Amino acid sequence: MNSTAVLFVVFLLFAAIEGSPLYNKGRCRCIGSSADFIHLKRIEKFEVIPATPMCQQIEIVVTMKGTAEERCMNPKSKQAQNIISNLLKKRNNTTEAIPKQF
Fold first, then answer.
1. More reliable by pLDDT, 15 or 76
2. Phi/psi of residue 83, each to 5°?
3. Is residue 22 included in any domain, yes or no?
4. What's the pLDDT score for residue 18?
5. What angle do CA 15, 18, 20 make, to 5 degrees?
6. Which of 31, 89, 40, 77 is nearest to 62 (CA)?
7. What CA–CA distance (Å, rounded) separates 84 from 48?
């Protein structure tokens, strides 16, 4: 193999590692500004990521419908707090509706 081919293979390996989910492990996903409001009809998935020793902030990652674009949402915004509150209410209602088996 010549040196150009070797450099190309090394570049591909670094690109594959950097793009993998393991590369971001231990770092915050939401760096920089976060949205205070996102139209609810555009949200496909709402994910709350708790604080960890590697990232001391709570993160909210929203996946947009159609584009699958991930956007960060400000966890202190009124909309985010309302969505979390509603999800917790729904979660509590569904667990109460399921009869416990002994």
1. 76
2. -65, -45
3. no
4. 46
5. 105
6. 40
7. 8
Q: pTM of the full predicted structure?
A: 0.61
Number of structural domains found in the chain? 1
Nearest CA-CA partner of 41 in 71, 59, 67, 64: 64
pLDDT higher than 50, residue 22: no
Compute CA distances 68 → 46, 89, 93, whole Å. Answer: 12, 26, 29
* Gap between the Cα atoms of 38 and 75, Å rounded: 12
Residue with tokens 């949402």, as numbered in its chain: 73
Please name every residue paired with 70 in a beta bridge, in sequence order, or none if there are none.
63
**Which residue type, as a one-letter code, is found at position 26?**
G
Residue carrying the six token digits 């009124």: 78
Residue with tokens 């209410």: 89
Q: Is residue 59, in this structure, part of any structural domain at all?
A: yes
Could you list the residue range(s) of the whole structural domain that residue 40 is in? 31-97
| Amino acid found at 65 | K
Convert 81-90 to b/e letters by CB count within 10 Å (16 or more is b).
eebeeeeeee
